Amino acid sequence: MVARETAHRSVRFDGALHDVTAARLAAQEYLDDLTRVLPPSAPEHRDDILLVVSELAANTVEYAPGPFELRMSRSFDGVHVVLRDTSTTPPLPRPFDPGRGGRGIGWYLVQSLSHQAGVITHDQGKDVHAFLPW
């Protein structure tokens, strides 16, 4: 049974560049707590979740200026990550262009690492959901 304190976590950020690192650290803390009561089924699952959180937070800071919220919870077969931001524009896959410094693969990355990924827009912005294995 997952302890109540590891069942879910929600952290708000101002949306500054340093908040990308802060979001990753918050995710790491959540996963550390979760590991104590329920270790991941494979070590790479932890790294995949941290990578997805970092990617979503970086995109939020770049494309949706303003505050954002990171929510993480245990799902029946993994971890559910939600990043809520102030933009109603959903992430779009873009063609990879090596001339842009390797940019353009973020949404593909999130979709590839997740069991399921999707976006729900609302009046205040959007929620990007990713369900990842644990």
Q: Which range does the strand content fall in? A: 25-35%
Strand order of the largest sheet: 1-2-3-5-4
Oligomerization category of the chains in this entry: single chain
- N- and C-termini, Cα separation: 15 Å
Structural class: alpha+beta
**N-to-C order of helices and strands:** HEHHEEHEE
- Number of DSSP helices? 4
Radius of gyration: 14 Å
Which stretches are poorly predicted, pLDDT < 50 over at least 5 residues? none
**Biggest β-sheet description:** 5 strands, antiparallel
- Report the mean per-residue pLDDT as an integer: 91
Fraction of residues in helices? 25-40%
The beta-strand count equals 5
Shape: globular
SSE map:
Elements: H1 4-7, E1 8-13, H2 19-37, H3 43-63, E2 68-75, E3 78-85, H4 106-113, E4 116-122, E5 125-133
Antiparallel strand pairs: 1-2, 2-3, 3-5, 4-5
Helix pairs in contact: 2-3, 3-4
Architecture overview:
Helices cover 39% and strands 28% of the residues. The protein has four helices and five strands. Strands 1-2-3-5-4 form a five-stranded antiparallel β-sheet. The model has no long low-confidence stretch (mean pLDDT 91).
Question: Can you tag this structure with a few keywords?
Answer:
alpha+beta; 5-stranded antiparallel beta sheet; globular
Question: What's a quick, concise take on this entry?
Answer:
By secondary structure, the protein is of the alpha+beta class. It is built from 4 helices and 5 strands, in the order αβααββαββ.
